[in-house]
Write a structure and sequence with these properties.
Layout lengths: L1 H14 L4 E10 L13 E3 L5 E3 L2 E9 L3 E10 L6 H4 E12 L2 E6 L30 E10 L2 E10 L7 E9 L3 E10 L9 E10 L2 E11 L22 E12 L3 E10 L8 H15 L24 E9 L5 E11 L3 E13 L3 E6 L1 E5 L2 E6 L1 E9 L1
Antiparallel strand pairs: 1-4, 1-22, 2-3, 2-21, 4-5, 5-6, 6-7, 7-8, 8-9, 9-10, 10-11, 11-12, 12-13, 13-14, 14-15, 15-16, 16-17, 17-18, 18-19, 18-20, 19-22, 20-21
């Protein structure tokens, strides 16, 4: 880690000669901590009073010039010594803009730089359309041009990972005197015939203090389909189950004093998606059953016949209110209810406290209820952000 910070400092000194940039650091553990990708709060206590303690560190540095920009980041948590592969991250990207309307990018982390959000993250994670980020690990071209009140953004990305050979995104945007409207579409795995196609289309409108968005996503899931384990449904954080068809609607009203926002996502059927291995197991079960044989006697696992099936159509509803008590303190309360195999309730009050322009602190209490089980966790995070010229 010391070596990495030395590299980041060298980048800082080099870029400072002719550009400007920033350094950001996050310390603590918070499941909604802006892309740290460590979804565990500092403490988690279950009904048996058993608790775990989590810790995460995140550092990011970025610089830009007239025709280029770079970003490098690292993150790790307290399980890094047990399993470094999943608990430590090194990532970054570079962008070169030879023409005012054309950029070339490459890297393994462009989630913020080239993602389509479909509106704001109204109630933290739930409002985010996963398939709205077309830029996978690899390299690609970005076309960005404005024609009066209209603008066009197009992305074509050749990914290096399996199942992400070609991704594409397109945004039409209109900015009038009193409103902004956009229509956005993305596609993933366009060239890879052996994996699922992911595509989405959604619209976003901003009117004064109000924002609205609605969209459709095919094969919706919050993890890479190649890594998805059909028996680990609790790892799905966006919908209770990853679904073949999902629609989403969001709304937000904000003023200088408060904000209120809501999200609703629902599957359109009871099917959820499977990876290649699970599809083969399910196909073997169906084949034996269609021929009149007992699949278990033929060597299938008892759970294979349930793969891809769900008793309920999964859905999620969330609402969040916030009060900007002062320039330094903001108070929020979020409630969500989700239906998958069971009802899942979350109550989440938290506060953000800023220390000047460069530093902020978050503290809250997250209460999750599934059936008769209650888990209380404590998210906490200290964030520092400052510019480097």
């Amino acid at each position: 880690m010391k070596k990495l910070h030395t590299i980041l400092m060298a980048l800082s000194l080099t870029a400072a000669l002719s550009g400007e940039g920033y350094f950001m650091n996050k310390l603590g553990a918070c499941a909604d901590a802006d892309g740290t990708e460590f979804g565990s709060d500092l403490f988690a206590i279950d009904k048996d009073d058993k608790y775990d303690m989590f810790f995460a560190e995140y550092a990011e540095v970025g610089y830009s010039w007239d025709k280029a920009e770079i970003c490098a980041l690292t993150a790790f948590n307290n399980f890094v010594f047990d399993d470094p592969h999943y608990n430590i991250i090194f990532a970054g990207y570079g962008v070169f803009t030879p023409l005012p309307f054309l950029s070339v990018a490459a890297g393994n982390d462009l989630r913020d730089r080239f993602s389509f959000s479909g509106g704001e993250l109204y109630t933290e994670n739930e409002a985010y359309l996963l398939q709205a980020n077309p830029f996978a690990e690899g390299a690609g071209l970005i076309f960005d041009q404005t024609f009066g009140d209209f603008s066009l953004l197009a992305i074509a990305n050749i990914g290096s990972a399996k199942g992400k050979y070609l991704n594409a995104g397109l945004v039409f945007n209109y900015e009038g005197d009193s409103y902004v409207a956009s229509l956005q579409a993305t596609g993933q795995n366009i060239l890879n015939k052996n994996e699922y196609y992911h595509y989405s289309i959604f619209a976003h409108v901003s009117l004064a203090s109000c924002d609205f968005s609605a969209g459709y996503i095919s094969n919706y899931n919050d993890v890479d389909i190649n890594d998805f384990d059909s028996f680990c449904l609790e790892s799905q954080n966006y919908l209770p189950l990853p679904s073949t068809h999902v629609v989403k609607a969001s709304a937000r009203y904000s003023t200088d004093l408060f904000v209120i926002a809501t999200d609703f996502l629902t599957g359109l059927n009871k099917e959820y998606i499977l990876n290649e291995e699970a599809k083969k197991r399910r196909a073997a079960w169906d084949a034996w059953e269609d021929e009149g044989f007992d699949p278990v006697i033929q060597g299938c696992d008892e759970g294979d016949g349930e793969l891809g099936k769900n008793e309920n159509i999964p859905w999620l509803f969330a609402v969040k209110g916030g009060w900007f008590a002062s320039e330094e303190i903001s108070l929020f309360l979020k409630y969500s209810i989700a239906r998958g195999d069971e009802y899942i309730h979350e109550i989440y009050p938290y506060a953000d406290w800023s220390f000047g322009e460069n530093s902020s602190f978050r503290l809250g209490a997250r209460i999750n209820v599934v059936k008769d089980e209650v888990v209380v966790s404590i998210p906490v995070m200290w964030k520092v952000l400052f510019g480097i010229n």
